[in-house]
Design a protein that fits this description.
- This protein is α/β, with parallel strands linked by helices.
- It contains 20 helices and 9 strands.
- Helix 4 crosses helix 5.
- The chain is globular, with a radius of gyration of 28 Å.
- It starts with a helix and ends with a helix.
Length: 533
Amino acid sequence: MSRALRLAAALLPWLVLAGWTSTHMLWFLQRPWYYRLVAWLACAACSAALTRTPAGDDSADVARVPVVLAALAALVGIQGVSLGLSPTGLLLSVGMSVAAVLLWNARLGGRIAGLKALAVVLATVVAVGATEVAIRFFKIAQTARETDSRDLARRFNNLTPPGTAFVNRPSVLDEFPPALVEINAAGMRGPEIESGQPDLLLLGDSFVEARQLPWQQTLGPRLQAALGPELPGARVVAHGMRGWSPLLEWNWYLKAGRRFQPRVVLLFFFWNDLWTAGTEARTFRAVLDQRGRPEHFDARVDPFWIWYKSFRLVRIVDEVVRLASASGVRRLFQNAAASDRNPPSLLNQEAAEARGRRLAPGPPFTPEELNALLKRPADRLTPDLRRVVSTGFWPGIRPLEVWSADQHNAARQTEHELASFAADVAADGGRLVIVYVPNPLQIGPGECSVGRFADRVGPGVVLPPDSGIQAWLREVSARRGIEFLDPSAEMRQAASEGGRPPLYLRADCHWSPAGHQFMADWLSRWYVRSGRR
């Protein structure tokens, strides 16, 4: 094979990878790290095989192509293509690339080249060490923001690092396009928080975070806009985090949210916020202080993060990479958004429902089975139904009188958390209000039209308008003097209006844009009636 052909063959796999990455950047960057790593190593292996120099061939310069490509891969690794955008991912990505350069250099040049490579490594270590000493001596970047997961996990158990950006992509069963999610300096989704006292602080889980939708379509900004005509000076701050529940929301308020001094804290309560067994403190490995308030969490995190805390140079580099990556994701999303509003991979409604049926764990429950699930004590159910009532939303939607002892024990602990949360808000001059987030299957026959099959609830079925969780929340609120809001009745009325889009997404089963708008209008009317107190 001629020198030109071998050079072209060496470049081909890298050109293919570069072309694919450039045309599918948002998709490629969100693949699991091992997919990206395999693609990177496959290109390196192909290039190495195609540039192997036969004995007696004097075109050894062609075999140096992998060295140059590996050096370029190091730059690609800095962008996290190999193992992801984190200090650990960057360290391993660059390390692999440098190792590839050294190995190929030693292979091509023999012992002398290997010794030269070792000298380069030692010189680099000395240079990095000298730089670290200089940074500390001159007290440079002492205030570099630390966003490592170890610190966030200890303080909040689960929080997206401040200043990051990513794209939430739908599955084929969903109907929404990709959405850009940007996290501000406070670790909250949305723009930076303006100074001044907010009227309302919205706290919740994935319903408030709403990473399925663009920020402006979510509850926080929509409620701000809905209040404008009646209360022009009213301000709304919203913070939601998927997987959160009352203990984590209370913890965030104590450590970060109370500095806003909100007049009202709206705590959004979904069915999965009430444990069916055990306690949140035990589940999240919370360490409580003498008053029972969460002090920190013994969350398990990547041990490789330990090195990050020790080197200020690494923190500076990570801060630069973080800002560059957030800017890059934002720019890539904006460039791709025009052509990616309706991804061709998403199924139409009929096809999505058909696939939802195929993926379901079983056929929809019959009316007789549903009646038994919703009314009978667990010990009077058949073995298969007895297994069902301890999973998903079924334990909470059943009446209080058939709740298990474990449910009642967990509920007592959650009641204590809610009462303490309300007392802390009151001590800060505000008030806590609990807002029930209705189960979509309680609202209308067309809500959660695809996701319902995963719970074996057939099309057109509407679950009872009242549930054990709602009854329990009413009792807790009455006992503890906490205001309780339940929009279920008005939401059912809205869902029954002809020609109106669903209030919940079809497969994801969180609020749709129409659902966020409904909640914004409903809460706006409530707050205006309450006299902004």
